Amino acid sequence: MKTITIIKLLMLILMGGVAVVGGSWLLEYRDSVHTENRGVAAYEKGNYREAIEIFENLLTALPEQDADRHQRLRHYLARSYKNIADDPGLPLAESIKLYRKAAEYDESVIDNEQILKLLQPRQESIPAWQ
Predict the structure, then answer these.
(1) What domain range includes position 78?
(2) Structural element, H or E, at residue 22
(3) Given this model, what pLDDT does residue 5 score?
(4) Residue spans of alpha helices (H) in 45-123
(5) Is position 11 within any domain?
(6) Which of 44, 82, 107, 130 would disulfide-bridge 102, Cβ 3.0–4.6 Å?
(7) What is the mean predicted confidence (pLDDT) over 93-122?
(8) Contact 38, 58 (CB under 8 A)
């Protein structure tokens, strides 16, 4: 009879530990979704620098297994960088840096062929005699 009681006690302890760990993961996931929603709201309001900060922090904290969210965050980051780079008041060098950062996250957001050409690495021509 004591063996059954000990087994029951061990099962209760184990189940309690699983519930605590599972509950903790669920809270972290809920918080990350809330943070992502804040980033999307900032993006939609045109607060791209705020959105970038939120999305970059979230991206580094997310596990790699969450591929769909990683892709979505990378797309929002690329759009945010591109939208800042599109500002005609920015110096060209600054815009190119921002376009390059956008392309690192998701090149598909850059739809201007001239900008894409600017972002391509330069091929140094080597004289034929070398």
Answers:
(1) 2-114
(2) helix 2-44
(3) 73
(4) 48-61, 67-85, 92-106, 113-119
(5) yes
(6) 82
(7) 88
(8) no
The per-residue pLDDT for range 14-29, each reduced to its tens digit, is 665 544 444 566 677 7
- Determine which of 17-26, 46-55, 67-76 has the lowest per-residue pLDDT on average: 17-26
- Between 53 and 65, whose confidence is greater? 53
Q: How far apart are CA 76 and CA 5, in angstroms?
A: 55
The alpha carbon of residue 31 and the mean position of all alpha carbons in its chain are separated, in whole angstroms, by: 15
* Residue 22 falls inside a structural domain: yes
Per the document, the length of the chain is 130
How many CB atoms sit inside 10 A of residue 47's CB? 15
Residue 88 confidence (pLDDT) above 90: yes
- How many other CB atoms sit within 10 Å of the CB of residue 57? 12
